[in-house]
Sequence to fold (531 residues):
Amino acid sequence: MSSTMMDVPLTLDWIADRAERWFPDVEIVSRRPDKSLTRTTYARVIARAKRLARALGAAGIKRGDRVATLMWNHAEHLEAYFGIPLAGAVIHTLNLRLHPDEIAYIAMDAGDRILIVDDVLLPLYDKVVASGAKFERVLVVGSHGEHESYEAFLEAAPATRALPRLAETDELGTCYTSGTTGRPKGVVYSHRSTLLHTLVAAMPDSLSLSHADSLLPVVPMFHVNAWGLPYIAAMVGAKVVFPGCHLDPPSLLELMATERVTIAAGVPTIWIGIRDVLDAKPGHYKLVPNVRMIVGGSAAPEQLIRDFDRHGLTLIHAWGMTETSPIGTVSRLPAALEGADDATKYALRARQGRPVPFVELRVRNENGDVPADDTTSGEVHIRGPWISASYVGGHTPERWTDDGFFRTGDVARIDKHGFIKLTDRIADLIKSGGEWIASQELENALMGHPAVREAAVIGVPHPKWSERPLAAVVLKDGQLCVADELRTFLASRFPKFWVPDAFVFVETIPRTSAGKFKKTELRDTYRDWKW
Ligand code: ADP
Fold:
């Protein structure tokens, strides 16, 4: 076969070599458990990643073997992000917020051979082992005690061992869905899917990363590879500021100010906390003007976008899933609407947006593709080079359509600009008297009420209507609000039967390991609610 262009495989060594060769002195900052900061560079991180790759090869790790991490966001985790795939192996980022039983299940399901773990997570590691997980070797970053030291493992790496030649279809990494709606399922990313995702996610209309940025990934590196940001940053040569285990708003804001952060990423609950601190202490943190904040994982309430604009921070709303690497859609205001009124602009920015290049997206119901009328809803289907084609073990093949789309389980409408608006997850929809109620729409509206900090709406069994909505509401500090006020507030926005019959005021809403509202737990709590 002849070709007019060179046949260069899309493999991760390409990004590693680029960062090492062209951005050697760009800083990687890590916050340590004692809150101190350590600084390294791409040159050193990649050199150490290559050592790690050689050491893994010498330790008998072969192409396709799984090597797990149980770590916070910091430079050594970045080394693993490169070193494990450069060894031809598959990086499996274990989610440290899951129950030890679940971590053990996931590690065994993936067949993880070696584990790299933070010293501060050894108590968790002990529980994971007690829950039945077995690793051939465990390498500890930091004080290793009677365990094997990660540093010693690196030092013992053979100086000259050749790294394997990678193929673009080789497996690079694996993540498990966080199990918000069911048992975690494994998704495997290839070198090719990761490289294409990295390229497209960096684009100006996607996450917009450049060499001029200082990036703060608050999203954990165990949550869909921190949305691909570590690879994107290395490709463009952006400085990275890793927050370690200190994710409270004051610690993050302090880091944003001192490290001149220009772009940060995390789930809405992180930003809600930050907004509250900024509101309480306006002007206290000297942030770079126009910090961009990528928000995804659950819906960004419109009010949050408005509030951050007030503080001079720009929220960028994106949607994705573990199965989609994760970038699927991003909400960027079309140029033609720059001059539109605020209500239109904010409503658009609060939508999940349009698909990024190479991602094909449709919204379907029983009548086929829904019209772009912003009224008819259906399930989001998605297809593309970084969308998973199956789960590890071939679970739930019915999630894929006959024509090769992935059924996301998310319900959406689509408007005349082609912007999708997620209204709910199929699993969270409330069925009342034969009609559907979208819980997320109610939540987002409630979070627009000035007294409300957070709100989650669930369906609770009802003798007459089968289910009725109940809203669990967390009020902002010092706010008083009665259910009747919220009821009136919603009644002007939704059909009457959508308005929750019960409002319960709570201190906190239970969270999943990724910081989303844990509706399964809420449903359990209010299962026997007396109407
Ligand atoms: P889990 O399904 O366990 O929560 P993921 O982290 O893969 O695991 O979450 C993907 C889901 O998160 C999506 O299917 C969607 O329901 C939700 N999600 C992600 N981004 C957004 C967003 N911007 N708005 C609303 N929901 C979102």
Q: What stands out?
A: Residues 177-181, 296-299, 317, 319-322, 352, 408-410, 422, 425, 514, 516 surround adenosine-5'-diphosphate (CB under 6 Å). Residues 42-58 form the longest helix (17 residues).
